[in-house]
Amino acid sequence: MSALTVLQHINQIIGILFLICYSYQLLYVPVALWRRHKVVRPAPLRRYAVLISARNEEAVIAQLIDSIHQQDYPSENLDVYVVADNCTDNTAGAAREAGATVYRRSDKVHVGKGYALHFLLSQIREERGDEYYDGYFVFDADNLLSADYVSRMNEVFGEDCQIVTSYRNSKNYGDNWISAGYGLWFLRDAAFLNDPRTRLGLNAMVSGTGYLFSREIMLRHNGWPFHSLSEDTEFTVDCLLKGEKIGYCGEAELFDEQPTRLGQSVRQRMRWVRGNMLVLLRQGGHLVSGVGGENGLSCLDLLLSMAPAIVLAVCGTAAGLLATVLELFAGGRVLPMLGAAAMSFIVPYLLLFLAGAITTATQWRHIHTSAWKKILYTLTFPLFMATYVPITVLALFGKVEWKPIEHRAAISVQELK
Asked: Which domains, and CATH codes, for the chain?
């Protein structure tokens, strides 16, 4: 068997594996599209602490704190805490002036959001004790909250659901194809993954910001011991393996600022990819073992969501290109080979376009930009996702470290809407 034939078989196997790994998500689509009447159950007014880790966020942090103070939830039950983490600007002063309790942290060795959250929780526990708060919200400094965010999250939160994540929208969706690519991905993640997961009784996934966990979860973990490059994935996996339920509240809308520069985006997503792979290496065996247990479907869902798509895409692209080159050197006809190579890109483009188009159509009123940009950035969404192929290669073999993302979109919720 020739090397070319082997590569062609490898490409076919990769395609089959991709379908096996992700065809089940097609079942999520009708579940997500099925509209049902939401039953609002009375919820006690719990006391919450808001945790914000901020590094050089002087430009945007006041707007987040203002949106917290404008919640329709009783203000006496909601306290805002900020850790100014290794800041070289006036983040601490801006947060304090906006009404938050601020702690400064200077540690150039233990760098990252996970360490900052653990430090902040330690300060709060020392001053308030372990029983003062019922739960803890986690936000990034560039976020904004709809006025009913805390009330809606409070309705879902409870003994049966001690971790809740929310609907993640973008406050700068229309800036360019990069910010729109992020925004469309997060909208799809919320509306077509976490929402149907919750309806089907599976665990949702925490995604970086906009989530709530209980006092019991904090005590069980003795603070925040998740310090990897992707602490949100580490937290999600750990909770699932311990049988802790992660719920989703689609009515609680959060707005997040997305990167607009390609270099910044590449660095961020390299960290995500490397972090997910490291978590998978450490916990993948436990997730595989958990597939046969009580939370088996959630373990399988999480296992398939963490890495295979990107890894298979890299392998498939490499195998397809190499097969084309070998065929050309072996005297094969150029046009058929180029046509076959083009199809290996066209088919994934069409599938990603379809996913983006469905998301754009169903979430149209939540996307705050002009109609023509909504359509344009649906067309560029597959290109944004395609950049994950070289990013994954860089994450596998390049240097990856935690670096802050610059945020400049200093607007209010009212200006956004």
From this structure: 1-401+410-417 (3.90.550.10)
